[in-house]
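pls ignore typos typing on phone
iron/sulfur cluster + seq
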Amino acid sequence: MPLSRYLKSFSDPDRPGFLLLYSTRKGALVRVSEQLLATARNGTLSEPDQNILRRMELWVDDPAAEREAMLNVVERTNGSSSTFSATVVLTLDCNLACPYCFEDHFRGDHAMNDETARLLVAHIKHEQIDSGRDVELCFYGGEPLMALPRLKEIAGALQDAASIAGTKFCCSLVTNATLLTRPVVEDLLPFGLKSAQITLDGPADVHNRQRPFVSGLGSFKVIVDNLRSVYDLISIKPGGNFARDNYREFPAMLDALLEAGMDPAQIGPVQFAPIHPKSGGHDPHSAACAIGSEPWLIEANLYLREEILRRGFSVDKSRMGVCMIELTNNLVVGYDGSLYKCPALMGWPELAVGTLADGINDYRESHNLDVWKNDECLECAYLPFCFGGCRFFRKLKTGAIDGVDCRRALLDASLETIIRQDLALGRQQ
Ligand code: SF4
Ligand code: SF4
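k done
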């Protein structure tokens, strides 16, 4: 039967006798009659209809080849990637004192020193730029803008190296946005700054409780004022960390941005995430792929997604994506030169994959790279969204990256609603 194994079908309440077919590989949606689906299943589908479904990767001529293509998708992605991406921790110092901070065991006066910065620039130049790759750095902390001279030193050196080699360099920030003033952003534009992922934990009263300055004063107004003054210069990606008892208040944060005169069409995707239990790792806020599957969390994510879209803001598109641990040209660099494969895994020294000084070790076994290469996952319609789930969550749950973190229950409970939200709110699939 040449229907793709990577499709889901849902009844269409608006058109009795019709179904919604969704390709998890392509992220494409098509409305078909139940009769057409029956002819597809019994092998009598007309050639023109086959072509429509084939374009959306809902029809495959060779099911074995489809499975083989998925089996090799990471190798193909790694082989064709022309961009190197790294998250770089410049400092663990921060001017906020968020009670839930993952880094409160580590926070303090630990910043990247001259030698580590020199090694970082040399490593990226020799391993990446000299091989013709473009470079994208995401500066992270602590609060990376507390290490502004270091940021400019690294970005400037790599930008020069890229320019000489004829490749491209750009950078972004994960920042609390308290220091993201217009003069700072204007200063950083020549260094390739393109975007900033910022955090607002709901409306002012909730945010000021969750994200006060070290002095105890609230930071909400400072951040909103900064965002209003810079969002025409760089792409702002708002996020926030919610809890079970306050997520319903979070849409009010978006209302505050609207009231401040900001145009949602000019703002990047909004990504709210739950506060995770404190662990050995950093806050995975920058790894928006980390999603839990408890019922309240599924409800919270769907509720917030709808409220974001209803206000004219955007969310990240559902699409095929592997965990960045699988991607060769992706790295996380600690302030001390330690290397990891995901920001959420920092703080577990046993999961470091090397150092800038000594290079990268073989991490295939420690990070269970082929965990999804089994019959159950390869035949699962959710494989393009899941690829065995999140190693960070598996580590939180079992203490080891010793198997898949299956997202079937999460996707069973949420994908249909996500598709209906997109249809109702006129989003393109
Ligand atoms: S382990 Fe993978 S899926 Fe989980 S947070 Fe890290 S990059 Fe994302
Ligand atoms: S881990 Fe679960 S949801 Fe993910 S691909 Fe495997 S079977 Fe499917």
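The CA atoms of residues 259 and 396 lie 39 Å apart. The domain at 75-429 is CATH 3.20.20.70 (TIM Barrel). more later
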